[in-house]
Amino acid sequence: MARSSQAAAATPLGSLTQRGSRAGIRCRMCDSERVTRISMELTDGSQVDFTHCLECEHRTWQQGDELLSVEHVLSRARKR
């Protein structure tokens, strides 16, 4: 389930403590820049991004431009 070294190298790492490292990601609800984004591969092999706002606590799961429900992500993450 780990990302390949090529994919990891292509995506620059961000930082909550270093303002210039946040890559311009903003919360969809409150427009805050204080967000955490984690890219991961689910059990079924699909790549998703989880975003959590530190200001308003809004959370999203996304695959490309498509927003995913928590139920959809959990169904993809189940062991078969």
Question: Which terms summarize this structure?
Answer:
80 residues, alpha+beta, four-stranded antiparallel sheet, 2 helices, 4 strands, elongated
Strand content: 25-35%
Would you identify the regions where 5 or more consecutive residues have pLDDT less than 50? none
- Subunit arrangement of the protein: single chain
Number of helices: 2
- Which structural class should the secondary elements be placed in? alpha+beta
Q: Tell me, what's the shape? A: elongated
Question: How many strands in all?
Answer: 4
Nearest-angstrom radius of gyration? 13 Å
Euclidean distance between termini CA atoms: 14 Å
Mean pLDDT level: 81
Give the biggest beta sheet.
4 strands, antiparallel
What can you see in these coordinates?
By secondary structure, this protein is an alpha+beta fold. The chain has one domain. Helix content is 18%, strand content 28%. It has 2 helices and 4 strands, in the order H-E-E-E-E-H. It has a 4-stranded antiparallel β-sheet. The longest helix has 8 residues. The mean pLDDT is 81.
Give a short overview.
The protein has 80 residues and is of the alpha+beta class.
List the topology elements.
Blueprint: H1 5-10, E1 35-41, E2 47-53, E3 59-63, E4 66-68, H2 70-77
Antiparallel strand pairs: 1-2, 2-3, 3-4
